[in-house]
Automatic annotation (TrEMBL):
<keyword id="KW-0597">Phosphoprotein</keyword>
<keyword id="KW-0812">Transmembrane</keyword>
<dbReference type="GO" id="GO:0004016">
    <property type="term" value="F:adenylate cyclase activity"/>
</dbReference>
<keyword id="KW-0115">cAMP biosynthesis</keyword>
<dbReference type="GO" id="GO:0007168">
    <property type="term" value="P:receptor guanylyl cyclase signaling pathway"/>
</dbReference>
<keyword id="KW-0547">Nucleotide-binding</keyword>
<dbReference type="InterPro" id="IPR013656">
    <property type="entry name" value="PAS_4"/>
</dbReference>
<dbReference type="GO" id="GO:0006171">
    <property type="term" value="P:cAMP biosynthetic process"/>
</dbReference>
<dbReference type="GO" id="GO:0004383">
    <property type="term" value="F:guanylate cyclase activity"/>
</dbReference>
<dbReference type="InterPro" id="IPR029016">
    <property type="entry name" value="GAF-like_dom_sf"/>
</dbReference>
<dbReference type="GO" id="GO:0001653">
    <property type="term" value="F:peptide receptor activity"/>
</dbReference>
<keyword id="KW-0472">Membrane</keyword>
<dbReference type="InterPro" id="IPR050401">
    <property type="entry name" value="Cyclic_nucleotide_synthase"/>
</dbReference>
<keyword id="KW-0456">Lyase</keyword>
<keyword id="KW-0479">Metal-binding</keyword>
<dbReference type="InterPro" id="IPR018297">
    <property type="entry name" value="A/G_cyclase_CS"/>
</dbReference>
<keyword id="KW-0175">Coiled coil</keyword>
Length: 678
């Protein structure tokens, strides 16, 4: 049973009548739900904070704190505002139901209730809650996957840019300067320096190449770092001394977030602290394949067969949570740079890098002719490499894609800057999407690196579809104009409308019908009727506000003012009567509809931050509701205000004076039909 309870859900019953609690608890427990009970609103609020339920069944008439106040407090709390609340009450007036929905209820069950109706509504709301949670989790997962893929692509792009810059450097010192500059600009580390082993490999001396991001620091710090640099230039470090010596001796990267933890015999780190430098990172440059520990434990002399070519040290003004990833990335860059001093290993190093990638690398000249192909992923080749080398891009690719690539090559070579493009090619019976980075190699050639981004594009497409589903759900709840305004400025929206026409309709006989047919049949019939009403609302350009049980509310003239909105409501009412007659013949059930209409001023808008609902308030709304409740089944009762708007185009019968709750005596009319044109 425990597994079943977890699957069904946990329900909190709130009612001051013990018999009601026992009955509901018995019904729900038998259906596999875990049930908790509270005999007052205060107990319920305390219980919810202790353990959050999946759903709350809430009575209205309770001492000290009624159900409306309990629901309002639940919706005002960040912790409990998303818990669905179903009101279950003996109050059956329309305004009672309207108030229940206004304070945040999602459904309303009238006592005495049918067991199957309670179960059906509970299961329906729990299903909606689970679907909403699943949609949110799926959307979050897609966003996470896209972010991870984009980050991976950014890192690959940095590696390729760095490899190109280092490979085009004229000498070792220039290559070191390129590395220092690129790393500092990528990581926002402020200062970078290089240390070079002496000829006899006994000590490290300061390289003349260094880099400082002067534009990102205070001018006074620029002068302080310049003095720090002058002091460093005259120093020599032996294996194990300070950051350069430690990295050199261990051949391992080192991250230092507290300078006090490291021996500072030459007082250089103390001077760094005076420059507001707080953290440092050191990385060795070692020829690929020669990163290894010293042969003898405790020996600081390095083998001349596998020297450390240089030690790079970077300083930052502060440490951050992203430093670990940046340090790993810079370590990879440093490992690649070892090939700069060993030209014979350059091609082997680059091939090893490309072999670890899934990108396709092509070298082309400004005419688009292919000079070389390094197909790390042969599955993504449009044509075999043998058919591509020596041929121009228009000879091997579709015209549109060839034009795009050639234009990008010309731009990259002419500006000596990297250009990025995206395109797709039909390969293996499906469209493969590529993001291609085109970087200049010389004034006549460029290297093109194409990455397969099909999965990322698909993920973005899936995310877009999920977002469209979410937006469609919102459009099913709110008018399109309100949705657009909420996107621009989330929060309460309220507008005054000088004249709108409101229609309330109630299906007479539906309550009796619910006692004779199953809850499922009842809900299906109500859904069929209301779906037809929705079609009529769309047809007449009106705005459906809500349904309350078997009642339907629609308005004309908002959220966008509409001419002849009263006529549209009148046509809607007549069509609703006709639709009910058709349903009555179809299902052989005695169904009638009672309709009330009023015209007047209202305030309409959206309130709250979650579970939005577009609603309207004002005396005109209350009067329209009274026109329905005081009407006669099969009749359309309208106020004098509406009659004056329609009397020249529709047929009416004067009902006369009637007593309207809260308004006294009013003269009303029956809308009979639309007048035939003369």
């Amino acid at each position: 049973m425990k597994a079943q309870e977890r699957q069904k859900g946990n329900i909190l019953l709130v009612d001051d009548t013990p018999d009601n609690l026992r009955l509901l608890s018995s019904i729900l427990t038998e259906r596999g739900y875990a049930v908790r009970k509270a005999r007052s609103g205060q107990i319920a609020l305390t219980s919810v904070k202790t353990a959050l339920p999946d759903l709350i069944l809430l009575d209205i008439n309770m001492p000290e704190m009624d159900g409306y106040e309990v629901c309002s407090k639940l919706k005002a709390s960040e912790q409990t505002r998303d818990v669905p609340v179903i009101f279950i009450s003996a109050l059956s007036e329309v305004m009672d139901k309207i108030k229940a929905f206004a304070v945040g209820g999602i459904d309303y069950i009238t006592k005495p209730f049918q067991t199957e109706e309670v179960i059906a509504r509970v299961e329906n709301q729990l299903t909606i809650a689970r679907q909403r949670l699943s949609l949110q989790e799926r959307t979050a997962q897609l966003e996470k996957e896209i972010k991870a893929r984009q980050q991976a692509e950014e890192e690959i792009r940095l590696l390729l840019t760095m490899a190109q810059a280092i490979s085009t450097a004229t000498d070792f010192d220039t290559a070191l300067e390129v590395i220092l500059q690129q790393v500092c600009q990528t990581t926002d580390w402020i200062y970078g320096e290089a240390w070079i082993p002496t000829t006899d490999t006994s000590a490290l001396i300061c390289s003349p190449r260094w880099y400082c991001q002067r534009e990102k620091i205070d001018p006074t710090l620029v002068d302080a770092i310049a003095r720090f640099r002058e002091y460093s230039e005259v120093l020599t470090f032996y294996p194990g001394e300070e950051i350069p010596g430690k990295v050199w001796s261990t051949r391992q990267s080192a991250c230092v977030n507290d300078f006090n933890e490291m021996e500072d015999a030459l007082l250089r780190l103390e001077l760094a602290t005076q420059c507001d430098l707080k953290a440092a990172f050191g990385v060795p440059i070692v020829p690929m394949g020669n990163i290894q520990q010293p042969e003898e434990q405790g020996s600081y002399l390095l083998s001349s067969q596998s020297p450390v070519l240089a030690v790079l040290v970077f300083f930052a003004l502060s440490s951050s949570s992203d430093d670990k990833r940046l340090c790993e990335l810079v370590s990879v860059v440093a490992a690649q740079s070892g090939t700069v001093l060993q030209q014979k290993k350059v091609q082997a190093e680059m091939k090893a890098l490309f072999a670890a990638m899934t990108d396709t690398v092509v070298v082309r000249d400004v005419s688009g002719r292919c000079l070389n192909v390094i197909p790390t992923n042969t599955m993504n080749l449009y044509k075999p490499a043998t058919e591509t080398i020596g041929r121009k891009v228009h000879e091997t690719l579709p015209e549109a894609e060839a034009d795009l690539i050639l234009q990008a090559i010309l731009e990259a070579v002419s500006t000596q800057k990297t250009v990025e493009i995206e395109y797709s090619l039909p390969i293996g019976g499906k469209d493969i999407c590529f993001a291609e980075t085109i970087s200049p190699l010389s004034s006549e050639t460029a290297i093109l690196v194409a990455r397969d981004i099909t999965e990322r594009k698909q993920a973005q497409s899936d995310l877009q579809k999920e977002q469209e589903k979410s937006e469609q759900l919102l459009l099913n709840i709110l008018p399109e104009a309100m949705v657009e305004r909420l996107k621009e400025n989330p929060g309460a929206i309220a507008e005054h409308f000088h004249e709108v026409t409101i229609l309330f309709a109630d299906i007479v006989g539906f309550t009796l019908l619910s006692a004779r047919i199953s809850p499922t049949e009842l809900v299906n019939l109500l859904n069929e009727i209301f779906s037809k009403f929705d079609e009529l609302t769309e047809k007449h350009g009106l705005e459906k506000i809500k349904t309350i049980g078997d009642a339907y509310m629609v308005v004309g003239g908002l959220p966008v003012p509409k001419e002849n909105s009263a006529e549209a409501i009148a046509d809607m009412a007549l069509d609703m009567q006709a639709a009910i007659d058709q349903f009555q013949m179809k299902c052989s059930e005695k169904l009638q509809i009672r309709i009330g209409i009023n015209t007047g001023a209202v305030v309409a808008g959206v309130i709250g931050m979650k579970k939005f609902i577009y609603d309207l308030w004002g005396d005109a709304v209350n009067v329209a509701s009274r026109m329905e409740s005081s009407g006669i089944p099969g009749k359309i009762q309208v106020t004098s205000a509406t009659y004056e708007k329609l009397k020249n185009r529709y047929k009416f019968e004067k009902r006369g004076k009637i007593s309207v709750k809260g308004r006294g005596e009013m003269i009303t009319y029956w809308l009979v039909a639309k007048s035939l044109p003369k």
